[in-house]
Design goal:
With 525 residues, the chain is α+β, with helices and mostly antiparallel strands. The chain is built from 17 helices and 19 strands. β2 and β3 form a beta hairpin.
Amino acid sequence: MTFKKTLLASVIGATLASTALLSTAAQAENTLRMPYDADPVSLDIHEQLSGGILQLSHMTHDPLVRWNDALEFEPRLASDWERIDDTTMRMSLREGVEFHSGNAFTADDVVWTIERLQRSPDFKAIFDPIESVTAVDDYTVEITTKTPYPLLLNLATYVFPMDSAFYSGEAEDGDPKDEIVKNGNSFASRNVSGTGPYTVADRQQGVRTEFERNPNYWDTESPGNVDNIILTPISENATRVAALLSGDVDFIAPVPPNDLERVRESEDAQLVTMSGTRIIFFHMNQERVEAFQDPRVRQAFAYAVNQEAIADRLMKGFATPAAQFSPEGYAGHIESLELRHDLERAKELMAEAGYEDGFDITMMAPNNRYVNDAKIAQAVAAMLARINVNVDLSTLPKAQYWGEYDDRAADMMLIGWHADTEDSANFHEYLTACPDPDTGAGQYNAGNYCNPELDALVAEANVEVDRAKRAAMLQEVEQTLYDEAAIIPLHWQDLAWASANHVNIEPVVNVMNFPYLGDLVMDAE
């Protein structure tokens, strides 16, 4: 008991003590205490395309459709849909759904939301294929694409209709309520009205976000029985695990590789794991470092990095070494692409390019976003030293890192990416396409790699409805990125969650890594 009190008072402090802020009535209800490695950066679900924001979206909003465990589409706010022609889909919407504000959900909200997504810096590239959205009547919308587009339902999983009336007009500061401000302070970043299972009761960014069950939630068939959720960011892996095993919290994510066996062997906790599809990799900025414009140098860096050592030693086997973006099962995956760690070949390539003596670079990585992210960066820096590359490494908390990433503040930058459309084309569109601020292409291309021929090939694949032909195109993209060493792929990060025994997390976790907490069931302790 002494350890438990010490943990609360001196390590977790205000984050876990916030439970005391709940009323006596609330404490009698089912309250889920859930520390994540970081909290959402904003309440504006269009401000940033990230796992944290998508998790928030599923708590406070509902998508038109969502993925089920079999990676098939499940109706949500869209109750049905049909193809009218090659470029038009008609969706029927649920009637009788209300936003948290009490406003009725209608087709106008879907139109408003998609049009807002099209001007979001982070989302507009995904929604660029959409030509128009039309409200046929109050509960029917038609979505028309510029050309035949095979992934329209995939896009619909990212449409979480927002309360257009709630976000209309001006805020107290005179700014529009619907403005999207990256890493800033706006009405939408502080206020939320969705149709989801939870409302935001209180928020202290970086300290605690408290959610309450929406008493008017439309999905009366949901098995979910959690009345309150207290989300607290705990960046330290050991602290997060200790909090679960001591009974101070109910559900943690992620579980670090070093603690998997510890949690698995505990009689007071349960562990759920599954293979992941998030690729962890490094960009090499060709605008900041002239040497990176030479494909031989990029290839040398790729040969210098030992992905298997990182997966085995740092990740304790809880990762799959990667030689490409696309994981197995994705259309662009090439089974024959091999890892190419070869230190002697790396040295040969550096010499061929005229850099036998190496050069200096800066490197930046987050230290609380991906599993062992800071340690991975340290390991890669040490590996590059063996080809005479001197690395000045900086690691930052997630909240600070993304601003630096957007500014391309280092020569090499670490990022992880889960394909937002569950499709190989998404990797290239965001991460290696020629950067274009007008379309949003290459939004996260911190390497400034640019191959217009690949951009054209992906564009062609995105209108090809023949699955075999489309897969061949995307595999050609992967092969070219590999040959030109556009990035340094490291591994696909596996997924792990843990909870107290009375919290049934297995039915709500998924490979997309945003548990459907609205359906979560807690048993009586």
